[in-house]
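Supplementary Methods. Inverse-folding protocol.

Structures were first reduced to a discrete structure-token string of length 124. This string, shown here, constituted the complete conditioning input.
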């Protein structure tokens, strides 16, 4: 399976109260629940008024559109990274999965996943 690094520094953030989302650029993910509004976006686009945030995330994605009938892709990736003591923050879209890891673990993650048979595209 082919994976692709995104050449973007990401932040993970949240607001506890009500908040409206504005344009955060090409890559941004947000989710709203009854307890919070969570946001993943490029660090350089992070709104100043977030209540809590953590910087220093790298991201790779599974290349190509995945059918909903495909089973265990994210589980296999997360299991490999967990065995190598690398925590993840995963986001799924309609087409694919995005896996965020702390930047300092990027090389270690790539080595572990390549040993399992994954291939990485050049960084974009």
């Amino acid at each position: 399976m082919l994976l692709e690094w995104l050449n973007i520094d990401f932040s993970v953030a949240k607001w506890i109260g009500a908040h409206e989302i504005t344009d955060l650029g090409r890559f941004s993910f947000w989710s709203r629940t009854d307890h919070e509004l969570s946001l993943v976006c490029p660090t350089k686009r992070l709104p100043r008024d977030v209540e809590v945030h953590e910087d220093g995330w790298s991201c790779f994605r599974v290349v190509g559109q995945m059918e909903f009938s495909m089973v265990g892709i994210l589980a296999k990736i997360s299991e490999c990274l967990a065995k190598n003591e690398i925590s993840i923050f995963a986001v799924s879209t309609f087409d694919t999965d995005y896996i965020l890891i702390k930047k300092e673990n990027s090389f270690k993650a790539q080595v572990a996943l390549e040993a399992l048979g994954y291939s990485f595209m050049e960084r974009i």
